[in-house]
Every structure is written in structure tokens, then in C-alpha cells.
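Quick one:
INPUT:
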């Protein structure tokens, strides 16, 4: 799951980015309305964390603008302003949730996950196929009810594929979900990741297949 973090305080933003990455998200950062707009247009995000006080404008105005274009990406606003009117204003502008600074990191992570699993976002918590089950919120991964240890990237890849079993997902779409702009990604990074995951699934007795569709992408199916 890929997040856009819009926050102009560099140190705070770095800290949030690290914590969100540790929680398994791919994170891109923007530090102004202008850079946020560029990122919005360049890529699809699963959710946006938006500070309201930005150097070149108001996060709320930016949010209204996005909503006016029909963009329904879940947005959580972060702000030092704690008043009721700000909260109501944020929700009226199209925010899905609100968190006042200071906050505990665990709370931010929990709220972002809640945003991502709300109905309408078409995201569910438990993704199952064959004898495997991925709980995207835990996150945890089980095969035949037994916990299997996957790396963060492996889990993220599994999640992308399991959301559309039996459908080919293009390389580009997968890479977009796995890596942020700032990640240095080798041209064969995805192949390496897929082959490692495929071996791991095989050795742990998963009864699903991770197919390579040459020149297009990948898909998972529940039949060997
Ligand atoms: Ca700010």
C-alpha cells in the first residue's frame, strides 16, 4: 500500500516516513501544496496523510480541489489546530479522518489502516486463496493456519496479488505499489522478489501458484 505524506516539517516528516515504512507502507513525501500536486498527478496513492499548514497554502484548499476533480483517495488530515471548527471544516472539505498533533505513532498507523479497509475503498482485511490467508492489518500470513514469516516486501507483493486473484497485474502496477520514488530499484528487483516468494510458498506447502505472464506481469491462482 502506497501513501503520500504531505508535511512541511522535515524532521517530523522523516520520522513519520520511517515509522510508516516500518509498518509496511511504501511512502512518498511532499513538503508543500505544489509538490503534493505534482505527486498526485504522477501516481496513484492508496491514501494520503495531509498536514493543513503548508508553506505555500492551506492543505484544506488542496483537499477541496482534489475532491472537486472526483479523486476519492482516502485522506487523513494532520494538524496542530485542535478546535472543533477545524475538525468539522476538514471533514466537510472531504477528509476521511482527522488526527490532532501531538499523537502517538501507533494511532496514526492504526487510523491509516482503518481508512484502507473501509468499505468503498474496496479493501478487505483478510485475503484468502487456497490454503493461505493474509491479514493485511496484522499483518500476518498463514498457510494451512500456520504462521509463515514473510518479509515486508513479500507481504506487500502478496497483498497486491491477492486483491485480484486470477487476474494478471502488470509489472508497473506492482512496482508502483511496492516502491516509492525515492527507493532505488534495480531493473530485476521484482523478478528476484517474485522468485524468492515463489520458493518460500512452495517450501511451506502453499497450494497456490504465482504465475509469471511474460512481458506483462504476474498473477496468483489457487490451482497448481
Ligand atoms: Ca505544517
Amino acid at each position: 500500500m502506497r501513501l503520500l505524506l504531505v508535511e512541511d516539517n522535515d524532521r517530523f516528516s522523516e520520522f513519520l516516513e520511517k515509522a510508516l515504512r516500518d509498518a509496511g507502507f511504501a511512502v512518498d513525501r511532499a513538503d508543500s501544496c505544489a509538490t503534493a500536486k505534482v505527486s498526485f498527478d504522477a501516481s496513484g496513492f492508496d491514501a494520503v496523510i495531509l498536514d493543513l499548514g503548508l508553506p505555500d497554502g492551506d492543505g484544506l484548499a488542496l483537499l477541496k480541489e482534489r475532491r472537486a476533480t472526483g479523486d476519492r483517495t482516502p485522506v487523513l488530515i494532520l494538524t496542530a489546530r485542535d478546535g472543533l471548527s477545524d475538525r468539522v471544516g476538514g471533514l466537510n472539505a472531504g477528509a476521511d479522518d482527522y488526527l490532532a498533533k501531538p499523537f502517538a505513532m501507533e494511532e496514526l498507523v492504526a487510523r491509516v489502516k482503518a481508512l484502507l479497509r473501509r468499505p468503498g475503498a474496496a479493501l478487505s482485511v483478510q485475503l484468502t486463496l487456497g490454503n493461505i490467508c493474509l491479514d493485511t492489518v496484522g499483518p500476518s500470513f498463514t498457510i494451512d493456519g500456520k504462521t509463515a514469516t514473510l518479509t515486508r516486501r513479500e507481504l506487500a507483493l502478496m497483498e497486491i496479488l491477492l486483491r485480484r486473484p486470477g487476474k494478471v497485474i502488470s509489472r508497473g502496477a506492482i512496482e508502483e505499489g511496492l516502491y516509492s520514488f525515492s527507493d532505488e530499484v534495480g531493473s530485476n528487483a521484482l523478478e528476484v522478489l517474485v522468485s524468492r516468494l515463489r520458493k518460500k510458498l512452495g517450501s511451506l506447502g502453499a497450494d497456490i501458484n504465482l504465475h509469471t505472464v511474460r512481458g506483462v506481469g504476474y498473477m496468483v491462482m489457487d490451482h497448481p
